[in-house]
Design goal:
There is one protein chain. By secondary structure, this protein is of the alpha+beta class. The protein has a single domain (about 10-140), classed as Sufe protein. Chain: A (Alpha-Beta Complex). The chain has six helices and three strands. It has a three-stranded antiparallel sheet with strand order 1-2-3. Helix 2 packs across helix 4, helix 2 (about 65-75) crosses helix 5 and helix 4 packs across helix 5. The chain is globular, with a radius of gyration of 14 Å. The structure holds FE2/S2 (inorganic) cluster.
C-alpha cells in the first residue's frame, strides 16, 4: 500500500522555489551534516560580519523536505545575530513551514544541525566560544534515536 504524504503549501513552495541555493566563497562558517539512514546531505554556508549573519546559502543533496527546510532555515537566519540563529531550531523551521509530516521530522533536524555546524566552524576559525553551541555530530541519526 503506498503512503501519500501531505505537505503544506509552504513546504511545496520552498521545495519548488528554494531560496538561497548555492555557496558562499570564503564563507565565515560552513557546516555539512548527513543522515546515514536516508543518505541525505546538507551543507550550509554563512557570511558573518560583526556577529550578524549577512547571508546564508545551502546545497542539499536530499529529499524534498530537506530542500524546503534548508531553504526556510537560511531565510530565518539571515539578518540574525549568532545567538539568535542558535534559536532557529528544527521546531522553529517546521513552524515556519506550517508543519511537516512525522516521517519527515528528521529532515528539519538536518537543517538545525547544519546551521549549528556552520556556526561551530565559524567559532573554530575565529577562536571564539558561542554560548550554548555544541560540537556538531557526524550523523544526525544519533540525535533522532535519542529523541
Ligand atoms: Fe532524510 Fe529527508 S528523508 S532528509
Amino acid at each position: 500500500m503506498s503512503q501519500v504524504i501531505d505537505y503544506s503549501e509552504k513546504v511545496m513552495d520552498h521545495f519548488s522555489n528554494p531560496r538561497n541555493v548555492g555557496e558562499i566563497e570564503n564563507a565565515a562558517g560552513v557546516g555539512t551534516v548527513g543522515n546515514a539512514k536516508c543518505g541525505d546531505i546538507m551543507r550550509i554556508y554563512l557570511d558573518i560580519e560583526n556577529e550578524i549573519i549577512k547571508d546564508a546559502k545551502f546545497k542539499t543533496f536530499g529529499c524534498g523536505a530537506a530542500v524546503a527546510t534548508s531553504s526556510m532555515a537560511t531565510e530565518l537566519v539571515i539578518g540574525k545575530t549568532v545567538q539568535e540563529a542558535l534559536k532557529v531550531t528544527n521546531k522553529a523551521v517546521m513552524e515556519a513551514l506550517d508543519g511537516l509530516p512525522p516521517v519527515k521530522i528528521h529532515c528539519s533536524l538536518l537543517a538545525e544541525e547544519a546551521i549549528h555546524a556552520a556556526l561551530w566552524d565559524y567559532a573554530q576559525k575565529n577562536n571564539i566560544t558561542i554560548e550554548g553551541l555544541k560540537a556538531p555530530v557526524e550523523d544526525i541519526e544519533e540525535i533522532v534515536e535519542e529523541a
